[in-house]
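== Protein entry: sequence and backbone fold ==
=== Local backbone shapes as whole numbers ===
==== Amino acids and backbone structure tokens ====
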Amino acid sequence: MTGLSEEDKREMLRQVRRIEVRTDRMVTDVMAGGYTSVFRGAGIEFDEVREFAPGDEIRSVDWNVTARTGKPYVKKFMEERELTVMLVLDVSASTVFGTQPVARPDAERARSVRETAAIVCGCFAFAAARNNDKAGMITFTDRIERYVPAKKGRRHVLRLIREAYAQEHEGGGTDLGQALDYAGRIQRRRAVVFVIGDFFGPVPERQLKVLARRHDVIAVRIRDPHSETLPAAGLLHLRDPETGVTVAVDTSSKRVRTAIAARVQQERQQLQDVCRRAGVDLLDVPTRGSVSDPIVRFFRMRERRGSRR
């Protein structure tokens, strides 16, 4: 958190603490059981090969190694009881976006996309920790910003929340394809991979398919309502936080608002289609209201459908 004033640092740490308390409570109250029933260990996985010994099953012979060495070798497997959760998180400039709802006495404090994403990361990481699973994180912009190897434990979860919310980053744009490629290279063993971001821009279908062949991949889309539906507020000057380009939009024009709504709907449909073709589930989490409710509904959907494992 270099480059921030002491007051900004203190406020950021207070916010991280609020996220920690909130996500821990959500997991305790409503999420832990759903996580355990939906995401299970992968059963058995390949460990190594060893020379054939009397009593070994002929079905376990590794014929490729046997042919290469001239001696019979068998595959040795081990039971995999633990699961790895990898959080691939977009921390690009667009994720700082958040709008304040109309003020009223019972209005919930507004959350940015970044804060909502940190809460989502905390929920999945705490759920993994309670199940004695490991959790790790990759943060990205138009480059890979940080890789945190998967580990167990509550203290590690707190680090992941800090990385999700408080990390400074060098890049400003978004390169999802690079992040998916990196996740596939760095995470060799099968894992549950949550790809979390606002998903503005095209989604690289090829990289998503490649990652989903080895891992159980879930795309988590987080959007502020006003990033998709503009109010009739007259002439607005809108700035792209990743490119710096500013455009003037006449939101009083019904034609303009209709065109924007149509483009948003088209973009949503394209993401849904890409995820379906890649075999990836899509979870929508809003920046307003409950974070746990859509996650719990997602768990129930997965339970009803049955895990892909």
The helical segments are 6-38, 63-69, 113-130, 154-166, 176-186, 205-214, 254-278, 292-305. The first helix runs from residue 6 to 38.
